[in-house]
Amino acid sequence: MMTSATSVAITFDIEFDINGAFTHPALRAPKGAITLLGHPGNHPPTGLSHILDTLERHNVRATFFIETLNTCWFGLEEMGAVAHRIAGRGHELQLHLHPAWLQFEHPNWAELAREDPPRSDIHDNLASRSTEQAADIIRHGLSVFKDWGLPAPSAVRTGNLMIEPHLYPAFYACGLRLSSSIGLGHQTPQSQSLHRYHAALNREGVIELPVSSYQGSDYLLRPKTRLATLIGMGLDEQAALLEAAQRQSTPFLVLLSHVCEFHHSTNDGAYRRNRLTELKFERLCQQLCSTPDLNAVTIGELAAQVDDITNEVPLRVPPWRSARRLLDRATHIR
Question: pTM for the complete prediction?
């Protein structure tokens, strides 16, 4: 029997695309706002515009983790305009960091990339830095919000969900009391203490709200730990996860998505809608709005509701409901 409602935080990582610039520095350059907004002539709107319109239609607030280190290449204006657009629609903004962008601070970055190509497990991994180095990078990221004239974030999400215990003191020292950086279905921390599927954790005064993972199935229906993302879950799988959370009276879920899941570029430079992702997002918002025991919240709102739970029971999605994910992909036009 259900004893309490489940809070559900819809979160988006808002980031630009390095676009192979490190691999082919003479031929490729990073791509900015167009990767989020698509071509201005797209009708109906795709990407971020579609996301914001859908949230508004269902009166749902979401949390957008804004990547700020891209300013090393683009300067303040390009992502700043995106951040102000999201904030103007009433949503919560938090901090997202991909340290790989710091490579562009070097005037000879192209030469360095040719000699020693940046690696995601090192150059784009905040956890590969010491606590002090990480704190300096975080302060760099936070300063961008100040330059944009936006409120200081209270939460952080590390790039690629790479997290280890020594980062929490860095978060705390920078005034960040919340993190949403664990994602077992995508990245397993070396520290066993951070192996959380969905339960909150208090480390060094910082509340960790993991991106939810669950026990589902791979494409051969073998057991697999999966991350709760729009692109990764099928229509029925998504509904099944929410139902499982209700049955177990799970206090909260954190769902993750990226704008690139909603559209993709074509050879002629246009952006084509991903109709399946749009449909999954529409169904998610409908389910949250129509189910009394599900409450849509932001990460900031969620932090006030949760406790550190030492023992958690992983949520399970039956293989037959995971199997429909493959059917979704076969029957829906991207």
Answer: 0.95
